[in-house]
Design a protein that fits this description.
This protein is of the alpha/beta class and 336 residues long. It has helices spanning 2-13, 85-93, 120-133, 149-154, 169-172, 215-222, 235-243, 254-263, 288-302, 310-318, and strands at 27-31, 96-100, 103-104, 108-110, 117-118, 138-143, 160-161, 176-184, 186-191, 207-211, 228-232, 249-253, 267-270, 277-283. Strands 1-6-2-7-14-8 form a six-stranded mixed beta sheet. Strands 11-10-12-9-13 form a five-stranded mixed beta sheet, sandwiched between helices. It has a three-stranded antiparallel beta sheet with strand order 3-4-5. It starts with a helix and ends in an 18-residue tail after the last helix.
Length: 336
């Protein structure tokens, strides 16, 4: 039974749309962390974005932050092109080490047809690397489980994490975040034939799976509606548990749930999103100059929300099929 479930998952992954328009890629290497990873490569063709000048408030020292609340959690440092200690360190190394996922369809996953990492987060990581290191930037993609994202940043085993990571107050006590680059929300994923309706009492007595260290785990800890909670290292493991009959539902970001439903048409999102989940690029708390630099890159990436902006092109390539009717990126919020 387990083998059949895993075969179904692999089969669902296989039919990736041919000819997807991937943004110009920097040279990349994947560092093994959990086993099974192999190198990949590619070279970009255009140079880094032209320097931009910003007004007062671009110094690298971070101002004292107001008390974090759910209303201001997405605020970050104003953009700057200046090279501070963190940016200089990356340039001296000659490579950008990025913590990513390799199992989340559409966001960060290994294309079974090419063996290469692809997705919205992978594109964004390459754009950041190209801006800091130039057109031939070397990116080292390091696969990190959900519950290892913060430790990887604190131990500096990665320079940043670009991995559908929600900005919230608890995490901001441990790491620094860019402005939000995508807006998601927690939702329930369950088999289409299931009587589960939403994140409500229809979960009572059910086995609900979520990733350890995720905001889904936090929500279930705060109130599980009588469900039995099962935690796993990565969200994709929850889809496997559903396929094997070892879980009745999944609580995850709707962006990730939609990707899992695209892999397996026997499951669907139930009810409506019940939280606010802004995704940000996470960095070490001391790397304030890197936060400002990433925010400048994101400013260019959003392109004012125009239909032909890099953000909209990436959205149409990776996300529109599963998450339609999104008109543009979230607007940046700053605290200085």
């Amino acid at each position: 039974m387990r083998a059949r479930g895993l075969m179904n998952l692999r089969a669902a992954l296989a039919p990736v749309a041919a000819g997807m328009c991937v943004m110009a890629a920097a040279a990349a290497v994947l560092v093994p962390t959990l086993g099974g990873d192999v190198p990949e490569g590619g070279r970009g063709s255009s140079g880094p974005a032209a320097p931009r000048t910003y007004g007062p408030g671009t110094a690298h020292a971070a101002p004292a932050a107001a008390k974090c609340t759910s209303q201001n959690a997405a605020e970050s440092l104003r953009p700057s092109s200046d090279d501070g200690a963190a940016v200089k360190r990356i340039k001296e190394k000659g490579q950008l080490v990025v913590g990513v996922d390799q199992n989340t369809y559409r966001w960060g996953y290994r294309n079974p047809n090419t063996g290469k990492l692809e997705g919205f987060d992978i594109d964004l990581a390459r754009v950041i690397a190209k801006d800091i290191l130039g057109p031939d930037a070397k990116v080292v993609f390091q696969a990190v489980p959900t519950n290892q994202r913060v430790p990887a940043l604190q131990k500096r085993t990665v320079d940043m994490v670009v991995r559908t990571m929600t900005i919230n107050c608890a995490r901001k006590e441990q790491v620094a975040f860019s402005t939000a680059y995508f807006q998601a929300g927690q939702q329930v994923l369950a088999p289409r034939k299931s009587k589960i309706k939403a994140f409500d009492d229809s979960l009572r007595g059910k086995r609900v799976c979520t990733a350890a260290g995720s905001t889904g785990e936090s929500e279930l800890a705060a109130g599980s509606h009588g469900a039995k909670v099962l935690t796993v290292p990565n969200q994709l493991d929850c889809l496997v548990r559903l396929q094997l009959g070892e879980a009745d539902a999944v609580v995850t970001d709707n962006a990730l749930g939609a990707a899992q439903a695209a892999q397996d048409p026997t499951v669907e999102l139930k009810g409506e999103p019940f939280t606010n989940e802004p995704y940000g690029v996470a960095m070490n708390q001391n790397d304030t100059d890197l936060v400002r630099r990433v925010n400048r890159v994101l400013d260019d990436f959003r392109g004012g929300g125009g239909a032909d902006s890099p953000w909209m092109r990436a959205y149409r390539t990776w996300l529109q099929a599963d998450l339609p009717k999104i008109s543009g990126p979230p607007s940046p919020e700053y605290r200085d």
